Each structure stands twice: as C-alpha cells, then as structure tokens.
Amino acid sequence: MAENGNRFIKQANLIDGQWLAADSGATIDVINPASNKIIGTIPKSGKAETARAIDAAAAAFKSWRKTTANERAQKMRKLHDLILANQDALAEVLTMEQGKSLAESKGEVASSAAYILWYAEEARRMYGDIVPSPWADRRIMVTKEPVGVVAAITPWNFPSSMLARKIGPALASGCTIVVKPATQTPYSGLAWGLLCEEAGIPAGVVNIVTGSASEIGGEITRNALVRKLTFTGSTEIGKLLMKQTAGTVKKVSMELGGNAPFIVFDDADLDRAVAGAIAAKFRNSGQTCVCTNRFFVQSKIYNRFIEKFTEAVEQLKVGNGLEDGTQQGPLIDMKAVEKVEEFIADAEKKGGRIVTGGKRHALGGSYFEPTVIADAKPRMRFTKEEIFGPVAPVYKFRSEDEVIELANNTEYGLACYFYTQDLGRAFRVMEGLKYGLVGVNEGLISTVEAPFGGMKESGLGKEGGHQGIEDYLDTKYVCLGGLGL
Ligand code: ADP
C-alpha cells in the first residue's frame, strides 16, 4: 500500500486475476505534477506480459460471453455502486497523478460510474432483427454477438472516465478486455481492476498492463486474438495504431485530437457566452480534446467579449488540485509547458496581443497562467495545432459564412460551440459545422446519454448513447432453410 494509505495506488498489473510485477522486475516512477514528488511505481511490462493478458482474456471470453445480459448487468450495477462508494479515494488518486482539481476529479469519477450504469442498462437491449424473408420456406434472423477480446489504450487527461467508456461497453456486450492506461496516470486505470474484482467480475475478464507503450501497443495490434482496438489519444498515435491493426483486420474505435472552435455572434447573450467560454477552455487546465482551441468573435462584440472574458479568466484560482477552491491545477509535465510557451511566442511574433497571463505561474513547476491572446490571426500555429493548455486565442470575424468556413478549415472535427439567440442562425450554423459534437449556447455538453465521437481526423466510432455498444458487437445473419413451409 502507498505511503498515504490510499489503497487505489496499486503498484502491480492485473493478469488473469493475479496482481503481478513485470517479468523483468523493472518499474516506472509515477510523478505527482503538483509537487514533482514520486507517488509510487508501476511495472514496466512489455510484449510477453501483454500476450499473457490477451491469452487470459481469450480464455475468459469462452464463459463470459455465455452469461446472460441480466447477470452482466447485475455485476455492473455492483461496480457502479462501488465506484460511488469509493468516490473520494478515487478522486484523490486522480488528482495526485493528473493534477486536476479535486472537484473535477470527483466529477470525473461520478461520470465513470454513470457510464457503467448506462451500459449495464444497454446490455439488456442488444436487439437483433427478424427480417421478412424473400423465400417462402426460409426465415431470416439477424443477431448481435460480442466481438471477443477488446484492447483499450487510454490517455492521461481523463484516466478514469476514458476507461469507463471502454470497460463499460466491453463488459455489457460480453467481451473481455486488456487495458493499457497512460503511463503518467496509471493508478486510476489499475483501480478498475480492484473494483471489478470486488464486483465479482471473473478473473481474466478485465486485465490491466502498464509499461512500454510501443511494446504493449505492438503486441495488442499484432495479436490475432484481439478483435477490437479502442483508443483515445493523439491523432498521430491513432493513425499509427490503425496501420498496425490492418494486418489482422480488427475493428477500431478512435477518439483522437480536436481543434474546437467557439463562435460568439453579435446577438449572443454575452454573459452566457463568457461563462461557456471559461468552461469550454479551462476545464482540466485546457487539457481535453473538446477544449476550445480557437475563439471566433464577431466584430461588433469583439472588444466587449475580450474585456469580460479576461475579467473572468483573471478570477481563476490556480493551485494544487488537492487544495480547497482550486480551479486550475498544474499541466501534466514540463513538456506541456514548453509547448504552450512555443504557441505563445509564435503568436506574439505574428502580432498577437497577450491580454492576460502568458507565462509560467509563480507557483513554479508545471503551473501556467491562464492566458488570453487577442488579435489572433490564421497564420498563427494554434490555428492548425491543438494547444492542450490554458491559452485562449481570440480571432475577429465579420459574417456567418466566413466564420463557418474558418471553423471548418481544419482536419479535425470533434467538438464545436457557438452562441447566438437567433433560431434560424442556430440551425444554419449547426448544419454548416462539420463536427461530431455541437454545443449551441452551451460550453459543456458531454453526457453518457449522447454519442460522443468525432468526424474527419478526430476519429471513428461513438462512445455513449445507444450507439456506443455497437462497436463491441458483430452482426450475424442466419438463414434458416428447409422449413417445409
Ligand atoms: P497524449 O498526447 O495524450 O499523451 P498519446 O497518443 O501519445 O497522447 O497517448 C495516448 C495513449 O497511447 C497513452 O496510453 C500512451 O501511452 C499510448 N501510446 C503512445 N504511443 C503508443 C504506441 N506507439 N503504441 C501504443 N500506444 C501508444
């Protein structure tokens, strides 16, 4: 058990119901970004441990797939209850390894529980079809069955809920799973193993391996027993994994990068737009794939928006996520800080005006000042690239057509937001934007009931909604002939 006594700091991998070290005994340190101190270690596993986890998942699939939807749903309800019963301890671990405020961590853990409950309910609605037959003596049935062993690779920004979105549908559909959490934030991932055990989910159904991303990823993508890969992370690694899975033609779901536009029209409710802008930019210190990357504000309202937005940004309390009242924790590491600094330097060089923030925070380490940059221009780097930090560039636009074109001028298509009180415009803009998630007069829209997922290079597949389970199912057509009808 870890020094601070939190039992969710589990320093081992879960393979076939056993908590194990890496074969070599090698470990990796896990750092708290708020203090730069080591929280604990995790096994540095690789190809061999991953192959064994996949074998265990394949063996467990034989019996898990035969359980009834109701049995699986019961265990998942138990898992849901256990997550909520341990919400505080899970949130503490999340904040320690990730940096976000405790309030946000608690929210994330609650969202994890909500995903498990949602999929527990969906397990019982995996309907097939009986189709009118073109033959008098044959009948057509279409059934849904679990794809088999699923592999999940998740990022550090939502280490708990990104796994809930993958473990949930896998368990519900009757699949088994091998999980690789991000190396920076492994304990929120390993916690799933402890909770699944306590919920009575059999050994081998959920396996968790930490360590070398390329070795684990290499084995997952090469191994023919894995029938589906679900990945949340960067577009760059997503593309690599898609290439790697081609050899064994796996199903893939990809939640990749974003370049979210946030559009404020002259007729918007300004206070509402400012509140939405804060939520859509500064949640998790700007480190989410649905965070606003580009603010577009119409010319008449531009100066007033900058003024009110800046006032709100200056109110944000930066600090250690474990301290009361903190709204902005540190960035994940110093590399993230350097990247943010590069974006700011590039913008300044090209005529950007820093209205507030712009530099490392006085708290030191990877803390960074919430930043607003006015007079943003298309030639600045963040027009194309994901910032993933607390920097808000604000561009000025004139017409509706112009801003739709600007907003769509990116290879990404995950989230977008716009503010207007004109109903006709709301429909025109909503239909014009090539994005998988659209917030109209709302800056925070993710919820388990709706399908989350991107268009274009932001990804493939949906998580949540009634659509979410589909990616975990194979469709089978059965022709029943010779019925003598
Ligand atoms: P981020 O920029 O959010 O860290 P990444 O795409 O690099 O995004 O990481 C997301 C997840 O993918 C993490 O769990 C990471 O360890 C994993 N990952 C990174 N490189 C590879 C790889 N070559 N093969 C498999 N997984 C990888």
Please explain how this structure is put together.
There is one protein chain. With 485 residues, the chain is α/β, with parallel strands linked by helices. The termini are far apart. Helices cover 36% and strands 21% of the residues.
Beta-strand share of residues: 15-25%
Total helical elements: 13
Radius of gyration (Å): 23 Å
Global mean pLDDT: 97
Tell me about the largest β-sheet: 7 strands, mixed
Query: Structural class per helix/strand content?
Result: alpha/beta
Shape: globular
* Spatial order of the strands forming the largest sheet: 14-15-16-13-12-17-18
Share of helix, binned: 25-40%
By DSSP, the count of extended strands is 20
Protein topology:
Blueprint: E1 13-15, E2 18-20, E3 27-32, E4 37-43, H1 47-64, H2 69-85, H3 87-98, H4 102-122, E5 129-131, E6 139-146, E7 149-153, H5 161-173, E8 176-180, H6 187-198, E9 206-208, H7 213-222, E10 226-232, H8 235-245, E11 251-255, E12 260-264, H9 270-282, E13 292-298, H10 302-314, H11 334-349, E14 353-356, E15 371-374, E16 391-397, H12 400-408, E17 415-419, H13 423-432, E18 437-440, E19 459-460, E20 473-480
Parallel strand pairs: 7-8, 7-10, 8-9, 10-11, 12-13, 12-17, 13-16, 15-16, 17-18
Antiparallel strand pairs: 1-2, 3-4, 5-6, 6-20, 11-19, 14-15
